[in-house]
Amino acid sequence: MSKHAAVVFDSAGTLLSMYRIAKDINKNLMLCDVSTVAMASKKKECVIAVIHMEDVEDIQQLPSSMPIRDFLDTYNIDIGITCTSQPITKDAVIKAVKKDNKATVRDLQEVLDEVLSGYNNRYYVGIGIMVDMEAQNIPYALSSRGSLFPHVKKIIAALHQLGVDVYIASGDRQLDIEHLADCIGITQEKSFGLSTPLRKREIVNRLKKEYNPVIMVGDAINDLLAFEASDMAILTLQQYNMRPARLLESVDKTINRLDELVPIVKELID
Q1: pLDDT (tens digit, 9 = 90+) per residue, 215-239?
Q2: 13 in helix, strand or coil?
């Protein structure tokens, strides 16, 4: 059984520079360049769910007044849970969405408009919702865009040259993660989308049976469980985020830029 090193990357905020928009539906207020994970983590019962559409811009052609609950049913739209602090099923999230009577397609259109406004250099664009499982409603509509941080392809190539296997574990859609993997030189079987914090930890623990060491690289509180499970936890500060003390205390190293990672890994495995 192989015992060489593995590096597991988060995607959004780690490999991809992110711009995120949230609309507070109750206050009709747009929040720009926010950390949606930090927002969700403030309340244990909040879940972030991504809306699966082949082309999210198609939503701009749909009736604005349609409730999100009807939009999912009418167009047979699936969702995926990307961030939750507790085990929860997709069926439970959908049940909560169906009880919401305020959020509409217009809310999704508005956050998407804001994300796309005046910006063409993007790797991917996504839309989603925050669901309050306690209140059984949708407090926020969400959208984000991502573009590769500089030198990501060179960093992955350098890790491969060191004999390191590279993985991605991300809350983003599986198709988006596979596309990212193809783009930067990681095989699709080493890419795991729709990875909640619990699943990221499971991935790290499973890889520890095959690799030594397993290094987790992430940027936010949703990487905390994977950090704790890893042999070395590296927090990248390249993406601006609010980072609680418990996250900073959980890591072995912090880096300001992703290209600082390669010498750290080289020193560890030499």
Answers
A1: 999 998 889 999 999 999 999 999 8
A2: coil
In CATH, which of 3.40.50.11720, 3.40.50.1000, 3.40.50.1240, 3.10.450.50 is domain 6-15+148-269?
3.40.50.1000
Contacts of 260 (CB under 8 A, 6+ apart): none
Beta carbons within 8 Å of 92's beta carbon, 6+ residues apart: 133
Distances (CA, A) of 174 to 24, 50, 130, 154, 168: 27, 11, 19, 23, 10
Rounded to an integer, what distance in angstroms lies between the CA atom of residue 3 and that of residue 210?
6
> Using only C-alpha atoms, what is the Rg of the chain?
18
Contact by Cβ (8 Å): 197, 83:
yes
Positions marked catalytic: 10
- Helices vs strands, H then E, count in the chain: 10, 12
pLDDT of residue 56: 87
